[in-house]
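RECORD TYPE: inverse folding
INPUT: structure tokens
STRUCTURE:
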């Protein structure tokens, strides 16, 4: 230990921990919201099981309760899948590698998976991106983003509606536009819908199998790609238009 008379000065270190503090706060809020979202379907499942155990219902009634139990298990599954995806985006973002990717093919893959849902409401999905359109992006991350946007465009659409996907280069950025002919997003909600678990209409979202996390996943994907996203009313009529802009790395520097 140095004698005090030999001490000539002090060094005081300040560390700004605001970012870390805010991150921890966000995580705490997220865990609390997620627990709440898990509890609702669990309580419903428990309620139906107890009713079934306590009473002698007809076969039809039992079936009706079992279907409700199944749909709430599906809901739990959807929430867990979305929480896992969000966690992956936050903690393992370096896993997503930028490489030359065929945009049209990625979008076609998503459309293929979502076709049955679109067919139920007779919704047309129009992918206007050119066949050989390639840019340097993380393909799996871009797929997560596109899947969620098209999924929403179908979910919040109306019978015989459409979903249109357009992509083009604007200077050094790739601009993706996903528009639909659905219920649209009221302007007062445009900023809020990207927050975790935020829904404009909770019961409509639940009825459509929504979790309130789709657009947070989209927003996070966009942030990892250093881009931005916005929503407006669809200028072609009813519905909404989501515009994503992603700066593109030069193919040569890949
Ligand atoms: P959800 O799982 O509820 O769809 P999201 O995070 O994907 O959650 O979206 C948040 C909310 O934004 C939705 O509940 C819905 O109210 C609104 N929304 C998202 N996409 C659309 C769309 N294409 N048209 C109308 N409303 C939308």
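DESIGNED SEQUENCE:
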């Amino acid at each position: 230990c140095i004698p005090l008379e030999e001490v000539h000065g002090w060094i005081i270190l300040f560390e700004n921990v605001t970012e870390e503090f805010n991150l921890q706060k966000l995580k705490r809020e997220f865990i609390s919201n997620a627990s709440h979202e898990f509890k609702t379907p669990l309580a419903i499942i428990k309620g139906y099981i107890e009713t079934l155990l306590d009473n002698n219902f007809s076969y039809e009634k039992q079936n009706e309760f079992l279907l409700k139990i199944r749909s709430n298990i599906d809901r739990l599954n959807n929430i867990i899948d979305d929480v896992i995806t969000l966690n992956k985006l936050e903690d393992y973002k370096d896993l997503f590698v930028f490489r030359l990717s065929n945009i049209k093919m990625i979008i076609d893959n998503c459309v293929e998976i979502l076709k049955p849902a679109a067919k139920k409401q007779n919704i047309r999905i129009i992918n206007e991106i050119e066949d050989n359109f390639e840019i340097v992006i993380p393909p799996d991350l871009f797929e997560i983003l596109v899947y969620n946007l098209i999924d929403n465009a179908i979910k919040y659409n109306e019978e015989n509606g459409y979903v249109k996907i357009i992509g083009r280069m604007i200077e050094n950025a790739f601009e993706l536009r996903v528009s639909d002919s659905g219920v649209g997003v009221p302007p007062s909600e445009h900023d809020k819908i990207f927050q975790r678990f935020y829904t404009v209409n909770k019961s409509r979202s639940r009825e459509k199998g929504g979790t309130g996390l789709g657009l947070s996943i989209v927003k996070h994907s966009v942030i990892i790609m250093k881009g931005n996203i916005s929503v407006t009313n669809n200028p072609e009529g009813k519905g909404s238009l989501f515009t994503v802009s992603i700066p593109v790395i030069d193919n040569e520097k890949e």
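NOTES: The chain has six helices and seven strands.
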